[in-house]
Every structure is written in structure tokens, then in C-alpha cells.
Amino acid sequence: MCGIAGSLALRGPAPPGEEEAVRRMVETLVHRGPDEDGFLSEGPARLGMRRLKIIDLSTGRQPIYNEDRTVGVVYNGEIYNYLELRSELEAKGHRFSTRSDTEVLVHLYEEEGPLFPQRLRGMFAFALWDAKRGRILLGRDHFGVKPLYWGVFGDRLLFGSEIRALKAHPAFRAETDPGALDDFMTLLFIPAPRTVYRGLSKLEPGTVLSVESDGSRTHHVFWDPAAAVARGAARRLTDLRETLELLDAKVSECVKMMLRSDVPLGVFLSSGLDSSAAAYYASRHQKGIKTFTIRYKAGLADSYNEDREAAKTASFLGTDHTEIEMELPQDLTGLVWEVLSRFDEPFADLSALPTYMLCKEARKHITVALTGDGGDELFGGYPTSIATEVLTYYRLLPKMLRKRVFPALASALPTSLARVSLDYKLKRFLQTAQYVDEPMAAHFSWRGAFYWQERESCYAPSFYGAVKDRAPYASSLALLKGSEALTLKDQIQLADLRVHLPDLYLVKADRMSMAHSLELRPVLLDPELAELAFSIPHSWKIRGFQTKWILRRLLRGKVPDEVIDLPKKGFTPPLSFWLAEGRFQDFVREVTRSSGFRGLGALREGTVERLLTEHKERRADHTRRLWAILSLAAFSK
Q1: Are 105 and 73 in contact (CB under 8 A)?
Q2: Cβ–Cβ under 8 Å, residues 294 and 326
Q3: What angle do CA 142, 545, 628 make, to 5 degrees?
Q4: pLDDT on residue 48
Q5: Which pLDDT score, from 0 to 100, does residue 80 have?
Q6: What was the pLDDT predicted at 1?
Q7: Where are the alpha helices (DSSP H) in 52-102?
Q8: Within 13 Å of residue 153, how many CA atoms lie on the same side as its CB?
């Protein structure tokens, strides 16, 4: 695992001092790769990297070149099928000088050109310099597990694994995009390709960006999730037994490949099906593997704890299990600031705090951890998918009931601060359905922060004036372009895979793990497994109100029945309760009174105090809004 950064001078040679500028960019990424650095300096190209040694500890130093050094690469990630690809390339006459998975990239590019990543099974972001053609290629894996940012500033292309790397370059210009802030306030994240800064983009998953030294650019899409979902719809599986056999073999194959490592490895285990699947298949291939889980200190809401079920699974599988206790820390300011500042732009996933703590403690024992990320997207794990389908029928009710009666009844329900309580789900559904009729637009609202319709009352007038004409969730809906022919169920799966997964959940996993130089490997995010999952009928994924039905069938007898029969919990801390405590509320007041926060001009005067009061008095659960506000304050700092 690594961090990469660099530049390409456009329409001329690299200016004096460019190598030193790139070195400063790379220095901001030491946490991603504490073991060593490496640089490529040739013609207009300046590439750099920081490395966390995982495979080939002795000879895998980057950049790595082809035989005549006309192609060089720096890269972040792991290629799990590198041994198979290496054998194939050696048979074609390519000569390898290392045992690293990185070297596969330069030789595969020579064979197949810019679309070569379609042959890769892994997680990656790379920058490849082709000296003969005078071009640089930036590429990102199928699902967006590994990040990559890019932008053209003046006469230079800049790129990096994190925004902080680009900000370290003197050519970078930081101009905040109001539309991106609006996306964040309603979604809790900023959908790709947008970032919080104008002119700076996220490279989209499944894409290679080719930039010539004359400045011309070409996007090569090597994996299109909409097309993949459509392929699955065209070849639905019909035999349940055969499907379970195929699924068992493919998941086992994926986990076996992802166990390839020259450093200590373990599994993150919760009460969920996905992490339980990762632990089961890992323990099948590696006896006594280490597992780790979070336990919240006694006295906190039991609805947030998963340690009992995780311990039962660990005992069932015979893993070497460790529980990590978490409580509201005394140094609240330090922890929240450390976590939220890792994202470089406003970002407010609620599980960032426990993920950070879990990674911090796990890093004392291991360097690589397997996770279950991606299972919800592939196998129908989100109750919000059910809500989106229910909305299509709810819209048929009389307008008076939908717009006035039901929302009024829901608002009268007492507020619980328990994890995703029934009253919270009802209020979220009815408030959204009151104003957003389009199912896919509503789908992006279920997990958001501020409702679309409350922006005018919460935003500062000048900020609202800049974004008021935007269509509801237009940035997210734009990512579904080309999926109009798909069924609603397929569109829902595509939305979760194309938007929430890369821009919310995988961002959180990457930043929180890399803060501690820990590599996370999501065992279910494999292109071949995804293609198989897309061909599974939706009726085998969600049955009635039960999610991930097919995965429950697959794991029956492999993990404890108690775990299989649990409803989805999600990996969130008891923030709802913490935000009702006096010292946490005082902390929110303090940071939102800063000149930096006020300078953003995002919220109307009195909004923060109103939200804090209503939350403390349990008139409403404002956890997501308040956490989003804290993230905005961290960004402003």
C-alpha cells in the first residue's frame, strides 16, 4: 500500500524546481507509506511515491520499469492475481526483475495498452509514464477502493492519492465550489468526479485518464458498472443450488488470493454477515487467523454493541480474537479533529470514529486486514433499497395523506437516540416522500443529512441563493446516466455501487486505515465476483423485508445461526448519545463560532443552536446534521 503524487508539464519541459515541488507533495503522504520513497524524473514528468511494504519486501521499490526503462510506474494498492498474470507475461517473453505485483503493470500495459486494467483483480491507483509516447496514464480500480485526485492548474497536470498532496504544490489553487458544499450538506459526502475545490476532480472508478504532454486528455473506461449490471440482468441464474455452489467457490477463491502477503494479516469482524463471511473463508484457508472488533464501554446504548455476536463467531471459527474498547474520550477535541481532518474535504460518515480506533489498535498486531465492504452493494444489504421500492407504491396514496397527515403523525412520535430506531426511519421516509417523488432521488436522501426541502431554512441566504436552483440530488443522479433501461431494482443496486460505495464507505475505510499505515482489503470487491452477483435474481437478495437472503443461505452452518438471523446494524458509534452530552455540545458551539467556520457562510445564524437544543431535548435526532457541521468546521480550520 502506498501514496502517489506527481505532475506533468504541459506544452513544454518541467520548470526549474518541479522535482522539489513533487517531493513536498509526496512528504504529505508519509502516513500512507512509512517504509520508503521513490521518484521518477524524466522529460516533463515528475512522479513520486511513499511505500508501505506488503509484498516483495526486498526488491519491490518503486518506481518500477519495463526492460528498456521506457515505461515506469508508481502505484498504490494490491494486484491479487499478479502471479497468474506474471506467468502469462513471462510466457510471452517479458523479463521481470522483482517479485512485486507492481511490475505486472508495466508489462501488461505494453501488451494491451490503456485498457490493460480490465485484466486486473485488485485495488489500485497508479500513474504510468510512457516515455516513447510522451504521455502519462492515471488509473483507478473497478470499484474505487483506492483514491486518486487530479487537476490541471496553469500549465501543469497535478495528481495525488489525497487532496493534501496537491495542495502542497505551488501551482494548486483552492477555490471552494458551493455546489459541492451543497452536495455534502445533503448527502454527507461529495460525489465523484466533483471535489470541494473547483478544477480538482476525483478520477472515477474503472477509468484510465491518458494525458499527453500537449495537454490533450482521453478517458478510457475499462469497467462500466451500468453495463455490468445490465449483463447480469440478461443472464439471470435460475438454479439456487448451482448459484450457491458458484458463490461459495468464487468467494473462497477471492479470499485465498487476498491472503497473499509477506506481512502479518487479520480480519475485521463485527456482527454482520459480510465480515463474518470474510472471517469464515479466511479461517478456512489460514487456521487461527487474527480477528478484531470494537466494543463500546459498558453503560452506552446496547443497540450499538456487536461484541457479543462477533465473539461468538470468532469462537465458532477458532480465530485469535481481540476486542477493542471504545468510549467518549477525554480529549474529545483532539480525536474528532484528528479523524475529520484526515478527509481533506467535508466528509461525515458516522462510522469514521470507530473505524479510526479499530485501525489504530489493530495496527499494533497486523499490517493488513480483510474486511466485508461491498457485500451490501452486491447482495442487497440495505433496508434503504426496500424504502425506495415502497415509495413507488406510497406515491399512489392520496396527496392529503402523503403531504400532511402522515408527516404530522410521524412528527408526533417520541424521539429515540437508539441506532437507526423505528421512529427515525419513519420520519426520514415520510419527510423525504413529502417533497421528493422521484424514487432514485429519494434513494439518495435516506442516508443523507439535511433534507432537500429544509435547505432554505438552514442555509445562510447568500449560500442558498447560490445553490437554490439545483435539481434534487442531481450530482448523484448524473452518475446513473445510461441506466434508464434498467429496472428500478437494478438502478438501486447500481446507485449503491456507483455512488455510496466509492464516495462514502470506501473513502472512510481508506483514510482511517491509512492514517495508521494499515492496509484494508475488501474481500467481496472483486470484478469476477461482482459479475456473478449481478446475475443473481433480486428475489434471492431481498425477500420481503429480509436483506441479503442469498448470503444468509450461503453462510448457514458456516457461522452461528444467531449471526445469520440478525437484522443489519451498521458500524456506527453512539454519537446520538454523545451529541446530547453537555461537553460535546459545548465543543460543537466552540468550533462553529470560529472565524474559519463563519467565513464559509454556509449556515443561517441560529441553526446550530437550534439543532443542539432540539437534539438534547430529544425533540429530534440531529446526529447526522451535527456531525456534518463538525466536519464542515474541521474543513474550515
Answers
A1: yes
A2: yes
A3: 55
A4: 97
A5: 95
A6: 66
A7: 82-91
A8: 22
d(CA 550, CA 539): 9
Answer whether the bond into residue 329 is a cis peptide, omega within 30°: no
How distant, in Å, are the alpha carbons of 79, 97, 211, 213, 230 from that of 129? 19, 18, 10, 11, 34
From the centroid of its chain, how far is CA 280?
A: 24
| Crossing angle (nearest 10°) for helices 103-112 and 82-91 | 50
Is residue 78 classed as helix, strand or coil in its secondary structure? strand
Task: Please state whether the peptide bond connecting residue 13 to the residue before it is cis, i.e. omega within 30 degrees of 0.
Answer: no
**AA identity, residue 38:** G
> Which residue, 232, 270, 297, 305, is CA-closest to 529?
232
Q: How far apart are CA 379 and CA 391, in angstroms?
A: 21
What is the pLDDT averaged over residues 296-321? 81
Interhelix angle 273-285/307-317, nearest 10 degrees: 20
Helix 240-258 with 273-285: angle, nearest 10 deg? 70
**Residue 617 confidence (pLDDT) above 90:** yes
* Number of C-beta neighbours around residue 563 at 10 A: 21
Q: What is the mean pLDDT of the chain?
A: 93
Q: What is the DSSP string of 418-480?
A: STT-HHHHHHHHHHHHHH--SHHHHHHHTT-SS-GGGHHHHB-HHHHHHHTTSPTTHHHHHTT
| Distinct helix (H) and strand (E) counts, the chain | 30, 17
pTM: 0.95
- Written as one string, the DSSP assignment of 295-357 is EEPBTB-GGG--HHHHHHHHHHHT-EEEEEEE---S-HHHHHHHHHGGGSS----TTHHHHHH
Sort strands 217-221 and 207-212 into parallel, antiparallel or unpaired.
Answer: antiparallel
Tell me the helix, strand and coil percentages in the chain, rounded to 5.
45, 15, 35
> What is each CA distance from 284 to 48, 281, 287, 366, 434, in whole angstroms?
39, 5, 7, 19, 49
> Would you give the DSSP letter of residue 49?
E
On whether the CB atoms of residues 148 and 204 are closer than 8 A, the answer is no
Between strands 45-51 and 64-65, the pairing is unpaired
Residue 39, C-alpha cell as written in the block: 521518484
| 8 A C-beta contact, residue 370 and residue 251 | no
Exposed, middle or buried by CB within 10 Å (0-12, 13-18, 19+), for 235?
A: exposed
Q: How far apart are the first and last CA of the chain?
A: 29
**Residue 284 exposed, middle or buried by CB count within 10 Å (0-12, 13-18, 19+):** middle
Predicted local confidence at residue 304, as pLDDT: 67
Residue count (the chain): 637
- DSSP reduced 3-state for 162: coil
- Tell me how far apart the alpha carbons of residues 605 and 615 are, in angstroms, rounded to a whole number: 18
Query: What's the distance, CA 197 to chain centroid?
Result: 19
Q: Which three cell numbers stand for residue 440?
A: 432514485
Task: Return the amino acid letter for 440.
Answer: M
